[in-house]
Specification:
The structure is a single chain. This protein is mostly helical and about 325 residues long. Helices cover about 60% and strands about 5% of the residues. It is built from 15 helices and three strands. The chain has helices at about 10-20, 25-30, 45-55, 65-75, 85-90, 100-125, 135-150, 160-175, 185-190, 210-225, 235-250, 255-260, 260-270, 285-300, 320-335; strands at about 230, 275-280, 305-310. A three-stranded parallel β-sheet has the order 2-1-3, sandwiched between helices. The protein is globular, with a radius of gyration of 26 Å. The chain starts with 9 loop residues before the first helix and ends with a helix.
């Protein structure tokens, strides 16, 4: 195969690295689970990626100045293209929000190259003589399995390995204790056994109190020290704060406005120390909501995320609404 035919997208690599250098705090948490240095085709880009991730993982700034210094200190700056090339990467950025898209391209091209290499290794096995055919078949299967399974991120457990965890959970519930992540309502926890690792959909008619229930659950969890995030596509931050204040202070909307300022201030101060993050998405697309969820997890280590509400989220595919809701729930449940 001619070199020019090797799957690669140098422009996508440049745009991805440029985005990471331009806004590392936002971009790196989004892409580090998708790509590694080895996914880049150009060796210089591999070095730059390695520098960016190393700095970020050690809590240091991963901007253009720090990355240039890191490469220089490790004797890699010239191999990475030099300082001027690193600066030119910033000009390749259209918007940092596109980094995840470019990461997918870089990863997919790397997977294609690995398929080609695996095929070449299997061809070489076919020409070997003096070795047992069944052994050669086994090696070929290993090559295919490595490529197909690499990056799957899945887990294979024998049932015996899952027994202890389930028994502990049953003992906790039978003993009347709380599971790790509860709804904050004991009677509800007895029915659904908490919310850990679950996508829970609260459904009901309009004005039945779905949002109020979610916010009360978030408040009760936060008061137990569980970091929570509320992503609302319908209510403003001020409206949510009013709801939380009413719940915390056992007040009506009238009380919140006309109670003594000292009481209201006391309630708000109690809220201020709780691990609650209020997220206002930049848009209503599924991609944007998922991005905000990931940022809340990475930056604030939230354990529970409330999204209010699914009907407001705009999916990327499907012509019918039920198809779009299917995509939304699949993405949220696999998040």
């Amino acid at each position: 195969m001619d070199v020019k035919d090797i799957p690669k997208d140098v422009s996508a690599e440049q745009a991805l690295l440029g985005a990471a250098l331009l806004d590392p705090e936002k971009v790196i948490p989004e892409i580090e689970e998708k790509v590694s240095a080895e996914h880049f085709y150009q060796h210089g880009h591999q070095l730059i990626c390695r520098a960016i991730f190393d700095l970020f993982d050690h809590g240091h700034p991963a901007d253009i100045v720090s990355v240039t210094r890191w490469l220089d200190d490790h004797g890699m700056l010239d191999k990475a293209g030099g300082g001027l090339y690193l600066t030119s990467l910033l000009d390749r950025v259209t918007t940092p929000e596109a980094a995840s898209y470019y990461a997918d391209i870089v990863r997919d091209k790397a997977a294609q190259r690995e398929l080609i290499l695996a095929g070449q290794r299997i061809i070489e096995l076919g020409y070997k003589s003096g070795e047992d055919v069944e052994s050669l078949k086994s090696k070929a299967l290993d090559e295919i399995s490595h490529v197909v399974m690499d990056g799957g991120g899945g887990q294979v457990l024998h049932v015996s390995e899952a027994v202890d965890g389930l028994m502990e959970k049953i003992k906790i519930v039978r003993g009347g204790q709380s599971v790790n992540l509860t709804t904050g309502f004991p009677s509800l926890d007895k029915i659904i056994y908490g919310v850990e690792g679950k996508l829970v959909v609260i459904a009901g008619y309009t004005s039945m109190g779905k949002s109020v229930l979610m916010q009360n659950m978030a408040l009760r969890q936060a008061k137990k020290g569980i970091p929570v995030a509320i992503i609302s596509l319908e209510m403003t931050t001020e409206a949510i704060m009013k709801r939380l204040a009413q719940a915390e202070g056992h007040m009506t909307r009238h009380d919140l406005v006309y109670q003594s300022l000292d009481k209201v201030r006391s309630v708000l101060m109690r809220l201020a120390v709780l691990p609650i993050w209020l997220v206002s998405p930049r848009g209503d697309s599924l991609v944007q909501v998922l991005r905000q969820m990931k940022q809340a997890i990475v930056r604030h280590e939230v354990k529970v995320i409330y999204v209010d509400y699914l009907q407001k989220i705009r999916a990327t595919s499907g012509h019918k609404r039920w198809e779009q809701l299917g995509e939304i729930t699949r993405e949220l449940s696999s998040f």
